[in-house]
């Protein structure tokens, strides 16, 4: 057993020190008499009353001492071993970068029904992907005209899923700062050097805003050892919505493929929801979640036990004191 705040145990001799060094109460007025015999009555000097007068104060003193010791022990927060647990181990820090520019509102991707917007399909499949990453630390960056850290790296996967669900189109502007998003991810992952660091980048366009080009940001990411997996989404130009538009004509596949290759990642084109889901499953295989398991024995708080014992003894002491008052009044 150990204590979270062991220095509080130094308070154990405090009552003895106070009794030893402080003057006793009631010393101002003292009545001196030659003998106590004339003041002795039958209730206090009889054979039946004498043993009770000697034992009660002694027992109450012992109860008060135990109460103090138990209170100090509980205040020091005793800790004991809990049941053995096994936890998955992953040294992977995984950042998602999601394009939320205006073009992500194009409804040209099918998943299991009518065409939905690219962002709706991307959010839904990314949420499933995050659910499978138990044991990884996951974060979320959204980018449009600018790049923002939406959710810092965390083991709380529910928070990441909620962030994905609540990310609207145009949150970061209507253009595409692809290079800035990569640079931001590299900066946020830099503090985790020594771990496996991965960026999963989803976009449907080309770099049209920001301070850095994808090539410049990719060079920085490669120097930092960051691996980037990229997926470009949107239907082929020939599969437009029939009004002559080319929904993914701006997708800069050459740059995205080069970016992935230079950093040791992969690039895939997703023209429907199924292809996008296949991309994330491929990432699962390339970046397995658990590298193993580790057994650990957490600690548990033990302070309720001495605290409960102190309260029980305090109730006993109060009950004994209450019973002793009528006898003292009769004396």
From TrEMBL:
<dbReference type="InterPro" id="IPR036465">
    <property type="entry name" value="vWFA_dom_sf"/>
</dbReference>
<dbReference type="Pfam" id="PF13519">
    <property type="entry name" value="VWA_2"/>
</dbReference>
<protein>
    <submittedName>
        <fullName>VWA domain-containing protein</fullName>
    </submittedName>
</protein>
<dbReference type="InterPro" id="IPR050768">
    <property type="entry name" value="UPF0353/GerABKA_families"/>
</dbReference>
<dbReference type="InterPro" id="IPR002035">
    <property type="entry name" value="VWF_A"/>
</dbReference>
<feature type="domain" description="VWFA">
    <location>
        <begin position="93"/>
        <end position="286"/>
    </location>
</feature>
């Amino acid at each position: 057993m150990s204590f979270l705040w062991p220095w509080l145990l130094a308070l154990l001799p405090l009552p003895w020190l106070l009794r030893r060094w402080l003057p006793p109460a009631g010393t101002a007025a003292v009545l001196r008499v030659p003998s106590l015999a004339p003041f002795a009555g039958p209730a206090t000097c009889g054979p039946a009353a004498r043993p009770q007068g000697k034992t009660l104060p002694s027992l109450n003193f012992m109860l008060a001492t135990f109460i103090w010791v138990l209170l100090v022990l509980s205040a020091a927060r005793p800790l004991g071993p809990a049941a053995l647990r096994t936890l998955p181990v992953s040294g992977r820090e995984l950042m998602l970068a999601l394009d939320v520019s205006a073009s992500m509102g194009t409804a040209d991707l099918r998943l299991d029904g009518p065409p939905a917007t690219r962002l709706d399909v991307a959010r839904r499949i990314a949420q499933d992907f995050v659910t499978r990453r138990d044991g990884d630390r996951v974060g979320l960056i959204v980018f449009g005209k600018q790049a923002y850290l939406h959710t810092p790296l965390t083991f709380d996967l529910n928070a990441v899923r909620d962030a994905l669900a609540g990310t609207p189109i145009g949150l970061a502007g209507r253009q595409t700062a692809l290079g800035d998003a990569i640079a931001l991810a590299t900066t946020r992952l830099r503090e985790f050097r020594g771990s496996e660091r991965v960026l999963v980048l989803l976009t449907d366009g080309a770099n049209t805003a920001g301070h850095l080009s994808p090539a410049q940001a990719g060079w920085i990411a490669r120097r930092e050892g960051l691996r980037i997996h990229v997926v470009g989404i949107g239907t082929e130009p020939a599969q437009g919505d029939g009004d002559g538009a080319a929904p993914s004509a701006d997708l800069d596949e050459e740059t995205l493929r080069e970016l992935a290759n230079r950093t040791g990642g992969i690039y895939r084109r997703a023209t429907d929801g199924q292809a996008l889901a296949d991309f994330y499953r491929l990432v699962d295989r390339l970046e397995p979640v658990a590298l193993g398991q580790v057994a650990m024995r957490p600690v548990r708080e033990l302070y309720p036990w001495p605290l409960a014992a102190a309260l029980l003894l305090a109730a006993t002491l109060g009950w004994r004191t209450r019973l002793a008052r009528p006898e003292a009044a009769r004396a």
